[in-house]
Design a protein that fits this description.
mainly beta
């Protein structure tokens, strides 16, 4: 069955529109009638089919044309108005990812404050962990996925960095060039390099993940052509200089952490993103003698995966933090992790990866 779809636009005088749409916008005239006094013209181009009709009841609307050479299209003009009143916007087909300047802030987001869960893509539930998003520099989401098959499609994200860290349960995912199904268990994480194609398959056991994305506003695109799994496995492939990472908690080795009295396991994300970000899981070692520290990292985010602690910040009231709470510490602000429970585990995400921590005397 042959099916076509088209968008109808109004006009007062068709003869004024045709030169604009065919010459300036480089569209093809496919149909025009009646011959003696044309009232309808059908044009196609740039993946679009238009019907320009005299006296049509619709508003002129806006037409966006995306091209990999916007400066060479329509004499470099980015905004035009057609004779029929339709507004034309010329934009880049694949615009670069823009990293907004970070608006630093001390942020504490507690689960007990009952921030709303909202339904997002593919039926997943999202809780915003950093409402200010640091001026658009990053987004941190606590995500719950209903048990069972996930109604997902092969897709990718135009991002600078993206982390998926499993807090509880498990989830199965397929990734481009990474073999068959990958199962993420509690304590495991994925780094999804920019534009890697993937598809969530199945979730179970009360699956919850933390997702960090940079920048906060980024595009998700559906890939209707790629089938997963892909036939060839390429574990060393890079996307914008980053490799896919599937870090397993059971293989982690704990070493002394940047905060005295704590140890941490490295997820290898710093190495595989070439310093774009670092992801560590930290825990106290024995009896902690708390010390004040400050850092020079642009973004330092923490999520309490288990246990509890008291977070002290200079000039701030102390916060008792428990499982499900999150916090962001701006650069140069002194903080202290006090009274940690023996089962405390912190997920620490920093951007960029390498940075300095100073113990405040």
């Amino acid at each position: 069955m042959d099916v076509r779809a088209e968008i109808r636009l109004p006009t007062n005088e068709l003869r004024d529109d045709l030169p604009f749409y065919t010459k300036t916008l480089k569209m093809r005239l496919d149909m025009i009638y009646p011959a003696d006094d044309p009232e309808v013209a059908v044009l196609s181009g740039h993946g679009l089919r238009l019907r320009i009709q005299k006296g049509a009841p619709e508003a002129p609307g806006t037409l966006r044309i995306l091209t990999d050479d916007p400066d060479g299209f329509a004499e470099g003009k980015r905004e035009l108005v057609a004779p029929n009143g339709t507004r034309i916007e010329i934009d880049e087909l694949n615009p670069p990812v823009v990293m907004p300047e970070t608006k630093h802030a001390f942020v504490v987001r507690r689960l007990a404050d009952q921030a709303p869960w909202v339904i997002g893509r593919a039926g997943m539930e999202y809780r915003d962990l950093v409402p200010s998003r640091l001026g658009g520099a990053m987004i941190a989401s606590h995500i719950r996925v209903p048990d069972g098959p996930v109604p997902d499609m092969v897709h990718f994200h135009k991002v600078g960095f993206q982390l998926i860290f499993c807090i509880s349960g498990w989830v199965d995912v397929l990734y481009e060039d990474q073999g068959g199904t990958r199962r993420l268990h509690a304590g495991d994480c994925f780094i999804q390099p920019p534009t890697i194609r993937h598809k969530v398959l199945h979730a179970a056991d009360g699956i919850e993940v933390i997702e960090i994305g940079v920048p906060a506003d980024h595009v998700t695109e559906i890939d209707h052509d790629m089938e997963l799994p892909t036939p060839v496995e390429r574990p060393d492939r890079e996307w914008d200089g980053q490799r896919f990472v599937h870090s397993l908690a059971k293989e982690g080795v704990f070493k002394p952490f940047r905060v005295p009295g704590f140890e941490a396991r490295d997820t290898t994300i710093n190495e595989n993103t070439k310093g774009v970000a670092s992801v560590m899981v930290a825990r106290p070692v024995g009896q902690v003698d708390p010390v004040w520290t400050r850092h020079d990292c642009d973004i330092l985010f923490n999520f309490v995966m288990s246990g509890s602690m008291l977070l002290e910040g200079e000039g701030k009231e102390p916060y008792r933090l428990e499982k499900g709470d999150a916090f962001v510490v701006p650069p140069k602000m002194a903080t202290r992790y006090t009274d940690p429970s023996a089962d405390l585990q912190l997920l620490e995400v920093t951007l960029p990866g390498p940075f300095k921590t100073e113990v405040v005397k």
